[in-house]
């Protein structure tokens, strides 16, 4: 990305799902976005639009990972809150402002997964790999549709 002479229109980024969901780790990501990623992006691609991929909640609570983050709905709401905070921080600290075409955008993949959970539970289980964390091929397809949509 940064060694290429090519200019990028979009740069797609995501965080670890539980980091976005927890205020204490969310702040670390915000600092990393502002101090490291934003200068790198603007150095080479001043007009590139950051796409922040809101990752989906885990299919089920995972011990030592997400058991404290509540139901799928609660976990998703926490992740959404985190990504909104990321976008606000990015836009407040960038050379562009939130209302411009180059402002950070959120690809609400987690909300799409939640929609499937509520409306098509038989498909919900097919969106994840056996680890209950990572998207399966079907889940990756849904992610791609949301990102390009």
Automatic annotation (TrEMBL):
<dbReference type="InterPro" id="IPR036514">
    <property type="entry name" value="SGNH_hydro_sf"/>
</dbReference>
<protein>
    <recommendedName>
        <fullName>SGNH hydrolase-type esterase domain-containing protein</fullName>
    </recommendedName>
</protein>
């Amino acid at each position: 990305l940064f060694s290429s002479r090519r200019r990028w229109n979009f740069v797609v980024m995501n965080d670890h799902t539980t980091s976005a969901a927890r205020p204490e780790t969310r702040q670390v990501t915000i600092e990393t976005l502002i101090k490291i990623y934003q200068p790198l992006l603007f150095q080479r691609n001043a007009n590139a639009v950051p796409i922040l991929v809101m990752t989906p909640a885990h299919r089920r609570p995972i011990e030592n990972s997400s058991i404290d983050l509540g139901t799928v709905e609660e976990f998703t709401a926490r992740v959404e809150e985190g990504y909104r905070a990321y976008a606000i921080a990015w836009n407040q600290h960038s050379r562009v402002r939130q209302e411009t075409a180059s402002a950070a955008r959120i690809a609400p993949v987690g909300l799409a997964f939640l929609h499937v959970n509520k409306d098509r539970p038989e498909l919900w289980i097919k969106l994840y790999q056996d680890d209950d964390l990572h998207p399966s091929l079907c889940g990756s397809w849904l992610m791609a549709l949301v990102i390009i949509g």
